[in-house]
C-alpha cells in the first residue's frame, strides 16, 4: 500500500487518472463489468467546435457526469454520449476573418476552396474543446463521439429534410425574415438578441392629401419611410376618427398612402399614428398582409439601399438616415427629435443590427409539431425541472411561428433540393445532368434538433443503440436553450421516431460573478474554468459549480469559492492520510463505543440522503450532505474520538463508503485515494465499484440522540471558552446536573479531552453557567481581564472604523451591494461581541 503524500497535488495526478479511466474501457457501457439490464443515457449538448470550455459548459458537463457516474456505479449500462456542433455562422465568420488576414474572401476562393479551409481549421483546432471536456473529468464514451457534420449525421439531416418536405411540412416562400447584413444570412427569431439601446425617436409630419393639415408619426427608423405603404392608427383612438379612410403623402417620395385602422397599433407610442413599412418590420408585415398593402423593399441584403429608394440608392442605412433627416428638417417636416430607450434587435452571433426584410427562404410549418410538443409536457410524458419552466415552454409553443431554416452560408448542411429549369426535386444525390443544388444551408438548430436519436443510428430503424438508449433518460442544459434546442428536439423526435427524446429536462442556471452580474472578460470579472482546474484542481471547480445552486436559478461563482472547496478536498485527503496511517486488518467490523454506533448510523443516513437527492436531481443537497458529513461529523468528531478508541476496520469502512458516495462529485481525488487502499487497486477501479447500500441494522436512533447530547455539551463549553478568551491550554472544572447527566458521565473521558476539562462531576447546581436540553452545567474558570480589556479596546476602534465607512456617501454610492451588506454584518457582529464582553 503506497502512503498518501503530505499534500494533495491534483495537477500531478489528474491526467494520469483520466488516462487510466479511458484505457479501462469503462466509459463504454458495452464494456462495463457484470450483468447489466437497466440503462441510463444522457446526450451531451454539443458545444461549438469553434469554442473553448466556459462555465456554462462546465456546469452542464459536471451535472451530466455526476448522473452518469452515479448510475454506472448502481449497475446500469450508463451512456454519456459526447459530440460537437459545426456552429454554422460562428465557424464561417471565424474562418472568413482568418482568410481575410491573407487578403482573401470566400467569394474569391469559391465554395469548394473555402470549405476546404474550414475543414482544415476544424482538423487543426476542433479537438481543443473535447480535450477541455476531458480535463473536467467527463466520463464520456468517446468511441461514440459525434460531430454534426459527420457523414452519418449529414445523412440523417438530409433524410429528415426530404421526409418533411414530402410530407408538406417544409415549404419555400417570400416572407419577412431577420436579416444579418454582416454574415449575410437569414436568422430565426431565436437567433436574435434584443439589446437595450438609447437612440432617437423622430416625429415626422405626413401631409394630409388635399389639405394643409398633416398627421405626425414617430419612428426610430426614418429611412424606412421610403418603403411606407400606409399610416395606421388604433380604431379606438378618438384623436384620429376624422382621418380614417383618408390618405397622406409620404414625405420626399410624395407617394399617396391610406390611413388605416388596426388593433395592433399602440395608442401610447409616439403620437398614436404609426408608419407601416411591410418590407422592413415584422409587425408591419403582418398588418400589410391583413390589409393587402403593397410591399416595397428599399434595403438590400448587403445592408445598402436598393433602387426602390430612388436618389438614396447605394447609400448605407446610416448615410440615408442622416440625409433624410436633413431633408425633412429643411422642408419643415421634422416636428421634433427626442432621446428614446428601446430594445434593438441584433444578431446573436455577429452582434450586427438586424434588418427585417422580405426574402425567399425555406420554412418549417410549426402548428402540428408544436401541438405534439405541448401534449408531451402537458401529459407528463416529459418532466421539466424546475417545473416553473412548463409555463415558459407552453407559452412559446402556443405562440410559435413558422421556423425559417435556410441560411445563406456555405458551412453547414446544404439543402438537398435540386433545380432544373422549372423542375424541383428533393434528393440526397444529384438527380442527373443539368441539375443544380440549392446553395443555401440549413439552420444549425435543425441538425442539432435530431441529436438524441441521430447519434444512436437513426434513420436506420431498430439499431441496437436506438432500441437500448432512446428515449434518453435526461436532457441537461441551460435554461436559455429551452426554445433554441429543447423544444425543437421534442418536436422533431416525436415526428420522426414517434417517441419523446428524453424523460426529464433538467435546466441549470447561468453563472454570474460575485456581485451577481454577468461575467465579463473585458472587465476582469470572468472566471475561466480551465486555469481554475489547473490552479485548484478539477474537483474543486466541480463542487463550486454544484453546491449552493438551484435548478434554473442563476448563481454566483468567484475564485474564493473555488479555493474554499479546494480546502474541503484537502480535508478529505488528510482524513484519508489518517486512516491509511493505520494498516488495514482482517478483523470483523464491530461497533464498540457510542461514537462507533453514532457514526455508523449517520453513515446509513448519508447513503440514503445522497442516493435520494441525486435520483431527484437535487444535486446541491446531495453534495452539501457529503460536505457536512466529512467535515462536521467525521473529521471534527469521530476522528478526534478515534484517537483514544481506535477502530481500524470501521475507519476503513467509513472512508471506502464515503469515497464511493463522493465519487460522482469529486472523481479525481476519490479515485486516487481508492487506488491507495490496501488491496482495492487489484479488484476494481472506483468508477465501477458498487454504489453503497444503507443497512437498516446499523441505523441507531438512540445512539444519535445520546451523541447529540454529547455534542451540545462540548459545543457549549467551547463557545464559552471562546467568548471568555480562555486559553486552549487552560483546563477547567465542570459540574453537571439533569436527567441527561448519565450520558455525559458515561463518556466522561472523551468529553474531558474534547472540552479541555480538568474535572467533570455530577452534582446539584444552584447557579448554572449554561443549559442544554435536559442538562445544566457550571464551569469554574478565571477570566483573563488583561486580555479582555485589550479586546475591548480593539473592538471599539474596529467598530468606529466600520461606522465611519458606512457613513461615507461615496462608499455607499459606488460599492457593490454585496460588499456594503458584508460591512454591515461585520458591524453587527462586532457590536454583539462588545456587548457580550461588557456584560461579563
What order do the helices and strands come in, and which of them pair?
Blueprint lengths: L13 H11 L14 E5 L11 H19 L3 E5 L1 E2 L3 H13 L5 H4 L1 H15 L2 H8 L10 E2 L3 H16 L3 E11 L4 E3 L4 E16 L6 E6 L10 E4 L13 E4 L4 E7 L11 E4 L5 H9 L26 H14 L3 E14 L7 E10 L2 H12 L4 E3 L3 H10 L4 E2 L1 E2 L9 E4 L2 E4 L9 E2 L3 E2 L1 H5 L2 H4 L9 H6 L2 E7 L2 H16 L5 E7 L2 E2 L16 H8 L1 H9 L8 E2 L2 H22 L13 H22 L3 H24 L5 H15 L4 H10 L3 H4 L17 H23 L8 E6 L3 H6 L1 H8 L1 E6 L7 E3 L2 E6 L4 H22 L2 H6 L2 H23 L1
Helix pairs in contact: 10-11, 10-15, 16-17, 17-18, 18-20, 18-21, 19-20, 19-21, 19-24, 21-22, 27-29
Q: How much helix, percentage-wise, in residues? A: 40-55%
How large is the radius of gyration? 35 Å
- For the record, give the distance between the C-alpha atoms at the N and C termini, rounded to a whole number: 54 Å
Q: Strand sequence of the main sheet, in spatial order?
A: 6-5-14-16
Portion of residues in beta strands equals 15-25%
Report the average pLDDT across residues. Answer: 91
The assigned structural class equals: alpha/beta
